[in-house]
Amino acid sequence: MNPCARRSSSFSTGPGLRLPWSSSAEKPPRSPGVLGPRGFVASGPGLEVLERSSMMDTTTDPDINELREEIDHLDAEILRLVQRRVEISKIIGAARMAAGGTKIVHNREIDVLNRYRPLGPEGKDLAMILLKMGRGPLGR
Question: pLDDT tens-digit profile of 77-97?
């Protein structure tokens, strides 16, 4: 068989069935304790059938109110930092234009866009918003 024609994975991204296991297998592989239908542990030799709710340890559940308070704190800090970033960006833009420079420096904006790339498409949007807040809209 041509090595280029051989699939490197049993997971197909083409049309038809998409199975992460061999299509010749009757059932997908299962590890002991994997949740089956309706939140029950798959039964098998030596395995009990347990409801999902009994498997959760309520002592380790996160405190939602504490987490929300942390988000509120983070939002306040993000807001403070964005306001400071906009202030500094406007100072830089005014100084650059007073010295006879351009309103924007394309290479610098590309660097900012790349910095937010790890956040995915929304990162690019966030970077564009920050750039626009600091320099104003383009073409004016």
Answer: 999 999 999 999 999 999 999
